[in-house]
Amino acid sequence: FALMLALPAVATNYNREGYEIFRSRELGKHQTVTTLRKGPVKVWFSHCKTSGGTGSDAIFELQKGTRIQIEVDEGYAIRWVILRDTEGGKRYSDPEGIKRISSVTPGYKYYFERNAISNSHISGGNQNQLNDDDNNIVVYNYDAPEKIVYMWSHNNSKWDQFKVRDIIVGYVRAPKVRFERDRYDMYYTSIPSSFFKPVLNYDTHNVNAEFKVDNNDIATVTSGGFLKFKRPGTVVFTATCSASENCAKAQCSTTVTTKRDGVTFTSVGLPDVLFSNTPHNLRDYLNNSKTKSGENFDYNDESFSVTSSNNAVLRYDMPYLKFGGTAGEATITFTQKETNFYEAASLSHTIIVMRRDQDGTILIKDANEWKLFCKLVNEKGMTNLNAKLEADINLGGDIAMIGRYDHKYAGTFDGQNHTLTLNWNTGESDIAPFRRVDGATIKNLRTAGTIKSSGHFLAGLIDEASGDNNTISNCVSAVNITSSYTSDRCGAGGLISYIYTNTQVTITDCLVKGAINATGAGRTGMGGFVCYQYGTCTLNTCLYAGTNNGSNEYSYTIAPNATINNCYYLNACGSEYKQGTKVTEEQLRSGEVAYKLQNGRNNTVWGQMLGTNDEPLLTDDGAKRVYKVDFTFNSQVRATRYATRNKAIYGSMPTFTPKDLLGSDYNEHHYYSGIAFEDGFNGSTTVTSDKQVRINLAEKDCYEIASKENWKAFCDIVNSGQNKIDAKLMRNVDLGSEINMVGNDSKEYGGTFDGQGYTLKLNWDSGSNGYIAPFSVVEGATIKNLRTEGQITSNEKFLSGLLMSAYGTITLTNCVSNVNITSSILISACDAAGMIYFVKPGANVTIDDCVVKGNITATTDIGKDKMAGFVGSQEGTCTLNNCLYLGSGNGDTFSRTFVGDAYYGATTTLNNCYYLNTCGKAQGTKITAEQLKSGEVTKKLQADRTDKCYWAQQLGEMPDFYNAADKSKANYVYYDAAKNGWACDDFRLTDGQPLPIGLDFTAATVTYERNFNGTQNATLCLPYDLYAQGFKAYTLSGGNKNEVHFKEVDDKLTAYTPYYITANGMPQLGGRNIEVKAYKADKMTIPAAGYKFTGTVAGVSNATAAANNAYILQDDGKFHKVTTTNSAATIPAYRAYIICPPQASGAKQLSVVLDGETTGIGSTTNEATDGKNGPVYDLQGRRVADRLDDARHRLPAGVYIVGGRKVVVK
């Protein structure tokens, strides 16, 4: 497809070598046309004829979709074609008009050009109807790339057929521009300055070429056609001649390849072994190395190098090989890197170099040097060489052994405490680092790794030993040996496989810790140290810590037929008979075995970094020496520990239970703490020598708790096993929210816990956990004098204010649970109890003198099904004596006030137990709050016990357990066993304040202070008998209208009896050793002649007094009627009041007649100077001011009563 343009984008350049004109008029009308030719141009139509056209001339008429092929002869190319005066399709001015031609050869453009004839300057233009026309179409490409150009007429069914009147073809020369050669190949080194110019033949082209390459990374090109190579490689070099006036554009290419030269290195001329320190010159060797090109090799270029695999052995210092000072094998590598000039080439050549010290001892520091030493001994026969290891060596899988049957090693090999590690796997027999020795000394060597073989006679150090004076000392074999040899005994030895007859071997201070494993018959013969021993073998202070699967037939833990001195073994290897002393892994770790192997020698041979090393070490480092520490109690060693010098003992300090130390003197109820060691010795004490440490044991009769941390520690002590320990609470302790409980299912608490009257306070939220109580599980325990208070909240069941599960014989005495329990359980009853939840089968629980005050609340209906004030689940024997339930619970169904329903066979006994509120079903005896406050319940709870006081209280408060310290409190009543009665040391009445009294007792001191405000008369009703002192007492004798009559009584006043008294001064209403009586109402009212004189110790309200028509004594000496109009008028406690018979109840006041003599208010005064400071009453008995002198200016004018006298205020 070619570009279509309605108008030329640029002016058409009609330059040409020549042109040809093909006119339809020359053919005539109605002719079929296929091929036309003029000069070098040929035109071919696929379907064409001439028609009449416009006017009288013919015109080329093409079928729709007809191909027009225009071709020029070889050596020419087509630049332009003019299709003059075309028809068919839309007008030339329409954008669709150019589509008369559907397409042309790619690379050529076509467009309408009206003046194409004029612009082309062809001969005869604009003559004979060969003229410019709007419908002229030009097909054009200045470069003239083709010698054949194709065109296709349109194929539009709606348009007329394509017609063209004339065809003019412009053509140019097409020269054969070419390079002299199609390909160039050369060495990079042969290019002068890396420049090269291929020869170009222009043929007849008249334009200088432009040059380019396809890969500028390999080469660049100058404008003159010179190639400059950057590196070897292949490029396509292209020359382009641009189109000219009469020549087409021409282009040609050639391939240019540059390659690298090559050098070849050989081993000829290189040494295999060097022994001296004379440098070896490589110059001649390098000068003799030739290249592929035949040029001399340039070894001075930095791309060439000589390297050594081990510069410590042999290094290159151009052009010399120089020694690095370390013996071994070094591989010298000659390397020519790939460059622009040379291909990569290399050669590696190994040279052996041996090291010796000044004494001639071979020095070995790596696997290569070990192998070199093997070669010296085995191949060179240098069997007497001495050698030293300078480093740990890992031979890996390379089997390289010293000595062989014809070259037995006889020198001294010093491992210098380095390790030779191997990983050998073979099918051969007779495998060991030292294959054969004869009179050799091997010392300070460690071997490690594995030997696996299907053969036999395998060993961790020596395969075979012969000759005299073979000495092995301070050596360790940690080689794991596996033999799959099954034809006979495997013959494996941890140190030596075979000792020949007439051979002497001494093994001193050696350790074997590798494993030996054989198969089948191979198991029948192996040895921890030596397997076969037919000579003389002595082992001193050695340790076998390896493992094996040897059987007893011919296997030996240490060695057969040997002398064994102070040797030890961890695991037996076949026979243990006369094979040393067996030890355990712990003895190895602890330092005990290292201590025994050292055996008291001054110089350190065996040591151990305890805590780091699991077994003894062979070492001369004194810092690793192990000392022994003996811990003694009563001069007997009870434990031993070991320590590395200047370190603390290994492991933890010895732990002793008191029972361990005391034996039969141990008391499981005592608290043994502070096990201390002499001079403060502890796990951090530095040990510098062997020593003994004395153990000191502190003992208390109980554990003391004074904080929540102490409580947690106590729980830990019990729950860890010392569960019979007694304990005391030393103060009130707030446990907060952290839940720590005493005892568990495996460590039931069985001691005595004495709360000493103190309180454990808790605020526990157990979330989804149940079984919550301060004491979780107890068996055979006693808990006394303990108070708990606070809150337990849970989403679960099994909750208790004191104890969860009781086993065995349990006693609770003088305990108070004031814990509020809330359960939000959703799926079952809350199973909560104030004191104990579970009394387990077989348990015998006695609860004496205990109180539950806490409330139990289930927040769900199902949770309310089961709870109990004291005990929840009763499956044993449960007895409650003298207990009090003051709490509350919202339980129903199976809930009980004291104890849950007993299971079959269980027994519940309630003795003298009382409750204020029920919790589900009532149990015990109901009491009231008044009974509780009055002391009545306290006396009931004391019951008939006379040995001591159990219960006491302050009157007006709740019953509590007796506390001698509380005796000094006012109104504290208690049972005095010495006097066989109830007592109170300090009984006090506060005027006007009622005090409930529900029992008789003797008050050592009675105090009742009452302010008479200067009046000389009063009413009185006391809870005790009293002799009149400083006053006269009267009782009611009758009345008459507005009078009430009294008669004097004997000196003694009776308790709970009303009296009218007169006094000149302050009456004595208290005293000493007074009998206080329990409240009784039978004497509180004295009747006489229809009048009643009633006492009160509780006080009477205004409404009650008014309703009863009561008259109370006022300061004017008369009884005034109480009315509700004066609501402040009440009858205080310890007073008495008059009730008149109906015929006298209308009187507003009553005069008092004592023994027939009327009393009352004296004469009226204007100032009442003797009563200014008294309270002021109006004539209706109402108190209107506290003092006359303060109020006289604000009181309305009138008559008032002050100090029993009338006072006129004007």
Automatic annotation (TrEMBL):
It comes from the Bacteria. This is Peptidase M26. It comes from Prevotella multiformis DSM 16608.
